[in-house]
Write a structure and sequence with these properties.
Oligomer: single chain
Mean pLDDT: 85
Helix content: 10-25%
Strand order of the largest sheet: 13-14-15-16-17-18-19-20-21-22-23-26-27-28-29-30
Largest sheet: 16 strands, antiparallel, barrel
Low-confidence stretches: 1-15
Number of helices: 7
Length: about 550
């Protein structure tokens, strides 16, 4: 063991420092002065060659800067040098301040938009300010200017001076000019029209532009399936750059489920979805969807979405669908939505019509019915990346009134659907995703085709698609995710649900449903691969591990 240590020591001593390229420069212990300021005063920069003479000079430059601030007991140690690759190294300057200094007063230079008194009123600093709080106050100053459209404003601690028993910290502010974005320039959008990108972002309808607004506007565009990436960057106080990378515009995706348990007649279930996106570069979309479930349920759907005029944040869609349930009934319907949207919200109305007729099964088990519906909807979305979010929230609320005519009898019913999903990053690359969902129908004694469904890939993953039905359904999804990359992850999940089929079902414990397991989402060469394996519990028994529910799917672009 000793000989290996000696060899390692010799190698470190022989490592060619002078002439090696600096790949990283960082600081520790600098609670008062920002990294940006320290980097601006030293000679050792990323990409330059390491020089012991420059490092020695950098130590003096850093110490002198702290002395000018009045922090005379600051110690700057020799940097920690670590190899980062072949002929590359990193420098970490270690700073230590032994003084327990408190600031009695703040002063400002270069501020014109805000007076000193206004800044103090907005910052509301404590009577005695510790050195560690100065960096936070500096950030507050920058945030305050950004909130007033001064996106290029900067602030730095200039000095700390002592007058008798009092100490004064002075900040130097460079306000720049207020941003009034009237020019937009674009890069990378070969298909999508410029006006379409502006409308999708929602940036043109914001009275105040902040970095958070720019991030949200960029995410609104990235959320579109035909966009790979988008960054909206201010070039100057009048110009915004839309830097876009487009993706392919035709998608085919599918999900298949396999239930190996003995209590289902058909083991396989799933769907196929074909999408034609961004027609004519205007965010108009056309979808075809076919779905077949294990309980002899099949659905064929045609969906068209129109983004509306470029000058107004309104849009709409129309859906034609045909549903067949094991030859018992056929449901043919049409549904349309019209909505207004802004940066994070979508508000809309929904109109629909359905004609339910008996299928080929004899004897006839259902009564033909015609339904006319009208509803309102609200969607809120501020997640940071739609495909694999690490923070943010999605909220969907839909209320619908239905007028139904069964032979000569009329029925009036209301339904409410609520879905809430929250994403929170708890550790680097580790995310908690919690979803709460509920559906309720006021009419309880209705045919099964009017009921809500529960079970499957998007609700309870321990069961086959739409295995349970009820006028009331509720479920939660809890996931612990580890992010492998921007698009990929592995996760553990726990799903819990209840439902009620009719008014006689008063003991909810008989309908406690649990699904638990693990899964992954991975970006592959042929598309996005999804896989979930789950065990189910239906308030009586757990699924045998050998008969667990397997959901797998692939989404690819043509």
């Amino acid at each position: 063991m000793t000989k290996y240590f000696i060899v390692l020591l010799i190698l470190l001593c022989l490592y060619p420092l002078n002439g090696a390229q600096i790949s990283v420069v960082q600081f520790s212990g600098n609670s008062v002065v920002s990294d940006k300021v320290l980097l601006s005063i030293i000679q050792s920069r990323v990409g330059t060659e390491y020089s012991s003479e420059n490092v020695t000079g950098d130590l003096s430059l850093i110490a002198d800067y702290y002395n000018r601030l009045g922090l005379y007991k600051t110690k700057v140690y020799q940097p920690i040098i670590s190899p980062t690759g072949q002929n590359k190294l990193s420098l970490e300057f270690v700073i230590e301040n032994e003084e327990s200094i408190y600031i009695d007063k703040l002063d400002f230079e270069g501020n014109y938009y805000f007076t000193d008194d206004k800044l103090l009123e907005k910052l509301n600093p404590p009577a005695s300010i510790s050195l560690s709080e100065l960096s936070y106050i500096n950030k507050q100053i920058i945030d305050l200017y950004i909130s007033r459209n001064y996106l290029f404003a900067s602030s730095n601690l200039h000095s700390i001076e002592y007058s008798g028993s009092n100490s004064v910290a002075t900040f130097t502010i460079e306000e720049g000019k207020p941003c009034r974005f009237s020019n937009y320039t674009f890069r990378g959008n070969k298909v999508t029209k410029d006006k379409t990108l502006i409308k999708l972002s929602g940036i043109d309808r914001q009275p105040v532009i902040s970095p958070e607004i720019l991030d949200q506007a960029s995410e609104n565009i990235r959320r579109k399936e035909f966009i790979k990436s988008c960054d909206i960057v201010p070039i100057d106080e009048n110009t915004l750059l839309f830097d876009v990378k487009e993706d392919k515009m035709t998608y085919i995706s599918g999900i298949a489920g396999y239930d190996n348990s003995e209590n289902v007649e058909k083991n396989f279930s799933g769907f196929v979805n074909l999408k034609f996106l961004n027609l004519f570069g205007t965010d108009r979309n056309l979808h075809f969807n076919w779905e077949s479930l294990a309980n002899d349920y099949s659905e064929l759907k045609l969906y068209y979405e129109d983004s509306g005029p470029n000058d107004f944040p309104i849009g709409g869609n129309i859906t034609l669908n045909r549903i067949e349930q094991d030859s018992t009934y056929v449901d043919t319907g049409v549904k349309s939505q019209f909505y207004y949207y802004n940066l994070r919200n979508r508000y809309g109305i929904e109109l629909g019509f359905s004609d339910i007729t008996a299928g080929s099964r004899r004897p006839i088990l259902i009564t033909p019915e015609k339904q006319y519906s009208a509803g309102v909807l609200w969607n809120y979305n501020n997640v940071n990346y739609y495909l694999n979010p690490s923070n943010g929230m999605v909220l969907d609320i839909n209320f619908k009134y239905t007028y139904a005519k069964v032979d000569s009898i009329t029925d009036h019913r209301e339904s409410t659907e609520i879905s809430w999903i929250n994403y929170e990053q708890i550790l680097p690359k580790t995310v908690i995703a919690l979803g709460l969902h509920g559906n309720y129908l006021t009419s309880h004694d209705v045919d099964t085709y009017n009921l809500f469904t529960l079970g499957g890939f998007n609700s309870l993953r321990g069961f086959s698609e739409n295995r349970f039905k009820g006028y009331f359904t509720a479920w939660s999804n809890l996931e612990l995710r580890y992010l492998l990359s921007k698009d990929s992850r592995v996760h553990l999940f726990f799903d819990y649900g209840v439902y009620q089929f009719n008014d006689n079902d008063t003991d909810y414990s008989e309908f406690n449903l649990i699904g638990t397991g693990f899964g992954l989402r991975i970006r592959t060469a042929i598309g996005m691969l999804g896989l979930d394996y789950a065990l189910g519990y239906d308030s009586k028994d757990w699924t045998n591990p050998m008969n667990g529910m397997l959901h797998f799917g692939i989404e690819t672009k043509l």
